[in-house]
Amino acid sequence: MTSPTTDPVAAILADYPVLILDGALATELQQRGCDLNDPLWSARVLIEEPELIRQVHEDYFAAGADVATTASYQATFEGFARRGYDAEAAAALMRRAVTLAVEARDAFWSDPAHRQGRPKPLVAASVGPYGAMLADGSEYRGDYGLGEQQLMDFHRPRLKVLLEAGADLLACETIPCQVEARALARLLAEEFPSARAWISFSCKDGEHTCQGEKLADAVAELNEVEQAVAVGVNCTAPEFIPALVAAAHGATTKPLLVYPNSGEHYDPEHKCWHGHADANRFAEAARGWHQAGARLIGGCCRTTPQDIRAVAEWARPAAGH
C-alpha cells in the first residue's frame, strides 16, 4: 500500500481561515461564446477550444481563488465513446483538463506579485457523478439503480487517469446519494490510498441529499475515510446552505466545503435561468457560511470571477482583494 501523501487542504487551512474555491466554469465558457448544449457539456471545449479553459482558470486565480477545478466533470470514457473517441483518446482529453489547470496555476504563480498574502493554488480534478455521464439530470435525483460495486467499476478508470495526470486532489462533486459517495470512498481507501479528495453532495433542501438521505448521515459515514480531506455541499440553492452547514458541522470533524449555485433558478423546460445574480450578496452570504463552520468556500452554477473576488475581499484582504 502506498503511504498517504500530505493533505493539501489541511496545509492551507493551517495558515488561512478560508480556502477560496473557484466558481462556475461553464458559465464563463458560455460568456466567451462556447455552445455547451451538448451531452459532454464543458468537456466539449476540451476538444474544440482548450485555450478558453486555461483563460477561465487564470481569471479565477486573478480573482483570488486558491483552487482550479478542472473541466472534467462530464469527461467520462462512456461519454467520449458516444462521440467516437476510443479509450486512449478519452484519457488524453482527461489529462488535458488537468494540464490546462496546472499550466494556468503555474503561470499565475510565476509572478512574484501574485504571491502576496495567499497560498500557492491547488488543482482539483473534477469527478462528476454517474448521473452526469447520463446527461439526463439524474445527478440531481440519484436513484440510479446501481450498486456500490457497479459505481466503483464506473469511477475507477477515470480516477486513475486524473490522479496520474498531476492534480493535487480530486473534487468528487454533485454526488446525489450515499451509495455513490460510499463507492468513491472505498475506491480511494482500497485502490488509491495516497490520493486525496473532497466529496461534495448535491442537496434538495436544508437537510437532505438529492436522493433524500440526510446530509448529516452522509458526511458522518465519510468521517473515518483518511483520503477524504473535506466534505460538504455544492450545486445547491444558496438559501439551503446555512441549515446544511449546521447539519454537517455536527456530524463530522473534517473541514466543510460549500460552493452553491448563484441563487438564480433554472427552468429546464425553456432551458434558461431566472433571477439576478449579485456578487456582493453572494459574498455576504458566504461570510455567514464561514461563521457557521465552512472552511472551503466558492461557487457552482452561474457564479463568476466577480463572485469569487467579492468572497476574497473579506476572506483574504491582506492579498489586496
UniProtKB/TrEMBL annotation:
Biological processes, Gene Ontology terms: methionine biosynthetic process; methylation; S-methylmethionine cycle
Record-annotated Hcy-binding domain positions: 7-315
Gene3D superfamilies, A to Z: Homocysteine-binding-like domain
Cofactor mode of binding and number, as noted: Binds 1 zinc ion per subunit.
Superkingdom of the source species: Bacteria
GO molecular function (one): S-adenosylmethionine-homocysteine S-methyltransferase activity
Residues bound to Zn(2+): 235, 300-301
PROSITE patterns: HCY
UniProt xrefs under SUPFAM superfamilies: Homocysteine S-methyltransferase
Pfam family, one: S-methyl_trans
Keywords associated with the record: Metal-binding, Methyltransferase, Transferase, Zinc
Needed co-factor(s): Zn(2+)
Cited PANTHER family: HOMOCYSTEINE S-METHYLTRANSFERASE-LIKE ISOFORM 1, ZGC:172121
NCBIfam families noted in UniProt: PRK09485.1
Protein name: S-methylmethionine:homocysteine methyltransferase
Biological source species: Pseudogulbenkiania ferrooxidans 2002
Lineage per the UniProt record: Bacteria, Pseudomonadati, Pseudomonadota, Betaproteobacteria, Neisseriales
